[in-house]
């Protein structure tokens, strides 16, 4: 694998307390697999490696305004958000996990959809920075990662999904996305991605 450090961005998707945290609203859906797969530690290695190599680091998080005034529940998963009253912007629920917290120079993009490109300025930010390759990792594999990866491909980006830095609600759901994504982008392990940074 080869990566151009100047035109690559590492995109950490939805590592926020309500989604990936041990006590988050979505912990019953995702936390067991996050822990079993050890993906937080892998994500930290990716983030540290990207920063050390001078590669752009972008966090995406889903968050909603007070009263969920910007929540559209056409998707069942977002209906759950409304029922729970979760993912409110400006609360600890939508802060990035402490162990993966953004550092100075990192970019944080907020949106109110499942995929990171929808209803956000992510595409504009990446193009302005000269990015043509995105390296995706986060939660959940079959939701945010798959949605964001498909959108990135349609927008013309080279897409790399880091298999061992993603988790879904089950191994089966994770594996299904990985099986199909080989036709839509690239699937790699964290060690290979970090090695490509030199």
TrEMBL record:
Keywords: Hydrolase
Transmembrane segments: none
InterPro entries associated with the record: Isochorismatase-like_dom, Isochorismatase-like_hydrls, Isochorismatase-like_sf
Pfam family, one: Isochorismatase
This protein's record includes keyword Hydrolase: yes
N-terminal signal peptide: none
Gene3D superfamilies reported in the protein's UniProt record: Isochorismatase-like
Ranges where the Isochorismatase-like domain occurs: 8-182
GO MF entry, a single one: hydrolase activity
SUPFAM superfamilies associated with the record: Isochorismatase-like hydrolases (SSF52499)
PANTHER family per record: ISOCHORISMATASE HYDROLASE, PEROXYUREIDOACRYLATE/UREIDOACRYLATE AMIDOHYDROLASE-RELATED
Protein's name in the database: Cysteine hydrolase family protein
């Amino acid at each position: 694998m080869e990566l151009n450090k100047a035109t690559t961005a590492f995109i950490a998707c939805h590592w926020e307390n309500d989604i990936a945290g041990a006590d988050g609203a979505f912990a019953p859906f995702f936390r067991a697999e996050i822990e079993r797969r050890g993906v937080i530690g892998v994500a930290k290695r990716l983030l540290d490696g990207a920063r050390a190599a001078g590669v752009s680091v972008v966090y995406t998080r889903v968050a909603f305004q007070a009263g969920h005034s910007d929540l559209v529940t056409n998707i069942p998963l977002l209906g759950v958000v409304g029922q729970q009253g979760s993912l409110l912007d400006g609360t600890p629920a939508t802060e990035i996990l402490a162990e993966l917290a953004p550092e100075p120079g990192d970019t944080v993009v907020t949106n109110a959809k499942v995929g990171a490109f929808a209803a956000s300025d992510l595409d504009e930010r990446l193009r302005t920075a000269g990015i043509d390759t995105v390296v995706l990792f986060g939660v959940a594999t079959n939701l945010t990662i798959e949605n964001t990866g498909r959108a990135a491909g349609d927008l013309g980006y080279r897409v790399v999904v880091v298999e061992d830095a993603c988790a879904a609600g089950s191994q089966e759901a994770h594996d299904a996305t990985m099986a199909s994504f080989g036709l839509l982008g690239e699937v790699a392990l964290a060690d290979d991605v970090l090695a490509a940074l030199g």
